[in-house]
Design a protein that fits this description.
The protein has about 290 residues and is an all-alpha fold. The protein is built from 13 helices and 2 strands.
């Protein structure tokens, strides 16, 4: 009777999950399988013309394209800078503001403001601030502080464009880490910190022994998700500057500028393998450190 009841409960649970599973299959499974399908085809722009099977030619073309490797290296550096600094800033602010003070709700609202405002609004605000003619940053740098004789072309130079795009993404995304870490910090028993104070522990020792172990699992999730999101970043970089050739911009140009859909599909599959390997590596490093402890 118990086995029958358990079996019936399992069937009922799958029945309740069926609509969600069907929706996931339709929204994720079908596009993924179709992407694999067109990655081995030469897809014409005209939908009335038939596609031509080319096998692995699209993959070979991608792997022999120097622009692809340049975009991958740029994306890896960009992702590393943004993920590390946004996580560190979010963690530092969460630890610093993990106490009661007047105006805490207002401070929290100001911190998450950059995360909840639509990206397009923030992007054009930054473009106006760094505008070559009437931007407030150039006005301060040239006219007020006299730090430069000529107006800096912030988004027209590869190095300055990369730095500003990275700073924008750090400012845009660090509230996610801040909110995640704040939620965990509020669950830590305050008596642990009191015991650490009695033992004469320093602030770093309290963080290392009490805070970090509680945050480690959340940090893995935050870093993993942020790697995935930043690695495929497109709108924030593309609308800010054309000088930072991240893989999202390269993929967009391949698909919609040159209309080489088969090659774009092959790029997306190669990137899936690369980002999957990066996430697995991050998780293994963190879990290995937990076992060693």
């Amino acid at each position: 009777m118990r086995k029958r009841r358990a079996l019936s409960d399992t069937k009922f649970a799958y029945l309740l999950l069926a609509p969600s599973l069907i929706l996931l299959a339709a929204l994720i499974g079908y596009p993924m399988l179709y992407n694999i399908y067109i990655s081995v085809l030469d897809v014409p722009v005209n939908p009335r013309k038939p596609s031509v099977f080319v096998g692995l030619d699209n993959y070979i073309s991608v792997l022999t394209d120097p622009s692809f490797y340049h975009s991958v290296i740029t994306t890896l550096v960009f992702t590393f800078v943004v993920v590390v600094l946004s996580t560190v800033v979010g963690l530092a602010m969460a630890c610093f503001l993990n106490r009661k003070f007047v105006g805490k709700k207002l401070v929290n609202s100001l911190i998450i403001l950059s995360y909840v405002i639509p990206s397009v609004c923030l992007i054009f605000a930054w473009r106006y601030m760094f505008n070559n003619i009437y931007g407030i940053i150039n006005y301060i740098v040239v006219d007020v502080l006299h730090l430069a004789k000529e107006v800096p072309l912030w988004f027209d130079q590869p190095v300055s464009a990369f730095i500003l795009a990275a700073l924008f993404c750090i400012w845009r995304f660090f509230p996610y880490a801040y909110l995640s870490f704040t939620a965990i910090l509020q669950t830590i028993d305050k008596s642990l910190y009191e015991a650490a104070d009695i033992d004469g522990a320093t602030a770093w020792q309290k963080f290392k022994v009490v805070t970090y172990p509680a945050l480690k699992s959340t940090m893995v999730t935050v870093v993993s998700l942020r790697i995935i999101w930043v690695f495929y970043i497109y709108a924030e970089v593309y609308l800010l500057t054309k000088q930072v050739d991240v893989i999202g911009v390269y993929l967009y140009d391949m698909a919609f500028a040159t209309h080489d859909f088969g090659k774009a599909a092959a790029i997306s599959l190669l990137l899936f393998v690369l980002i999957f390997a990066c996430v697995i590596m991050v998780r293994k490093v963190v879990l290995r450190s937990e076992k060693e402890e």
